[in-house]
Amino acid sequence: MRRDVVLVGILWILASLVGEYVVSIIDFYPLRAALEAEHIDQAIRTLMMLAVPVFTFVVVVLLYSIWRFRARDESEVGAPIYTNRTFTVGWLVVTSALAAVLFYNPGYVGWTFLKSNPTADLEIQVTAAQWHWHITYPEYGVSLKSRPIGFARLDESPALALPAGKRVKFVVTSDDVIHSFWIPALRMKVDAVPGVVTTMYVTITETGSYEEDAVFRVQCAELCGTGHSRMTMPVVILEPEEFEHWIQEQQKMQMEGMTEGDGH
Ligand SMILES: [Cu+2]
């Protein structure tokens, strides 16, 4: 039995080292375009690094036991199993301690970071409705509505433009049911709740567009009916000068649209 414990211990350490190496070296994560995204990916990395030794322990003990204590022939009865009180208590203490560490960091520390700076260079109002996004840039008088269409034709919907290097405040609500405003490239998400205004601050760091990668899109992240999966909108992150230009174009288009609407 002592030999088994030593052997399992060695296998566990080896498997954990391989796991930690893979988790820390390989960048599994999709494209990032916000400061918050880096913190969130780091939080997931921390979770994985703490989960690796727990996972490898379970797998190594399980596989070793299946192999080592297998019945050698048909007639043999398996070894009796007794509760090991020390082991049970130890397991609970160690895993609870790991969970407590995570409550603090990234839990509390991450939450404090996300809520620490309620200032922004730009405000964008988002109203969700079955099944589109209504986006308004109040200081520019620009407003857009996404088209509730499938991914294949997402490029035909107007895009939500954001300026790189700026901090944006999203002010979010819903006209009907609960939706969730999510932009995967920013790793940030907030519920859109009817009758309630929620806010989300994001510091945009990189340019990018839906044509480049599908993480640059708004995606509803709260099941809201049959059109839920198609409740998307392309996102384009522009350099600040390009963004100003884009805003001017939108203003011009809206002016023209209004003139046409008047019958002139
Ligand atoms: Cu939805």
What does this protein structure show overall?
This protein is an alpha+beta fold. The protein folds into two domains: 2-69 and 85-115; 122-261, Cupredoxins -  blue copper proteins (Immunoglobulin-like), CATH 2.60.40. It contains four helices and eleven strands. The strands form two sheets. Strands 4, 6, 7, 9, 10 and 11 form a six-stranded mixed sheet that branches. The protein has a five-stranded mixed sheet with strand order 3-2-1-5-8. A hairpin with a 4-residue loop joins β6 and β7 (188-192). α1 packs antiparallel against α2 (35-68) and α2 packs antiparallel against α3 (85-115). The longest helix is centred in the first third of the chain and has 34 residues, at 35-68. The radius of gyration is 26 Å and the shape is elongated. It starts with a helix and ends with a helix. Bound molecules: copper (II) ion. Copper (II) ion binds at residues 179, 220, 222-224, 228, 231.
Topology of this structure?
Layout (H helix, E strand, L loop, with lengths): L1 H24 L9 H34 L16 H31 L6 E8 L2 E6 L4 E4 L14 E4 L3 E8 L4 E5 L4 E5 L5 E6 L4 E2 L7 E4 L11 E7 L1 H22 L3
Parallel strand pairs: 1-5, 4-11
Antiparallel strand pairs: 1-2, 2-3, 5-8, 6-7, 6-10, 9-11, 10-11
The protein binds copper (II) ion.
